[in-house]
Design a protein that fits this description.
- The chain is mainly alpha-helical.
- It has one domain: Hypothetical protein af1432, CATH 1.10.3210.
- Strand 1 and strand 2 form a beta hairpin.
- The longest helix has 19 residues.
- The chain is globular and about 45 Å long.
């Protein structure tokens, strides 16, 4: 296993420790994102399902610092870099940017100018791989109560954060990612996400 991400057991313990610091539904959301990543990766040649699970589980680990908005991305990046988990650190930032532009997010930019500039330059300097795309997709398939239709999650986010000029472009990009992985697995992604179509709860 690469030392750029932890084992499944360490990742699970890390999330438990983070929950003690900041309780909230973000933890259950992360657990479902991880399962979605694992389930889809198991059907994709070239993807490691355990790595996918770990990246999904820790994508929001920056929320360990408390109740924050977009600051959770850089907080997660900094924490994971301190642990030597470079692959997870990357995901902590990229999961929020299906459009590779810091201006595309709708959440509050509750961070310093230095942190903002770092993310802006970081996004300009990297190339997304299938793990980045997978976590972006699965982040849009998981509510704290379970798997859901992507449209349901997008409405959930829009209700809480509103819209901006990038909203429809972000949605279009996520549907492209969905189609990309459906081509890889040869079926609808919902075939590997039990109960997704039936989950109509947790929109708050």
């Amino acid at each position: 296993m690469s030392n750029k991400y932890p084992s499944k057991a360490i990742a699970q313990e890390t999330l438990k420790e983070a929950e003690k610091l900041n309780k909230g539904q973000w933890v259950q959301h992360a657990e479902y994102v991880a399962l979605a990543c694992k389930n889809i990766a198991e059907h994709c040649e070239g993807l490691d399902s355990e790595k996918a699970y770990v990246l999904g589980l820790l994508h929001d680990i920056g929320r360990r610092v408390g109740i924050v908005k977009e600051k959770h991305t850089i907080a997660g990046y900094d924490y994971c870099i301190s642990q030597g988990w470079d692959d997870v650190a990357k995901i902590c930032i990229t999961h929020s940017y299906s459009i590779q532009d810091i201006k595309s997010v709708v959440g509050e930019m509750d961070m310093s100018k230095e942190e903002y500039d770092f993310i802006e330059n970081y996004l300009d300097s990297i190339v997304y791989d299938d793990y980045d795309l997978l976590v972006q997709l699965c982040d849009a398939l998981a509510l704290p109560t379970g798997f859901c239709l992507m449209e349901q999650r997008l409405v959930d986010i829009a209700r809480r954060y509103g819209f901006n000029q990038y909203t429809l472009l972000r949605w279009e990009e996520l549907f492209k990612i969905k189609e990309y992985f459906e081509d890889k697995i040869g079926s609808s992604i919902y075939q590997v996400l039990p109960g997704a179509a039936e989950n109509t709860f947790g929109l708050k």
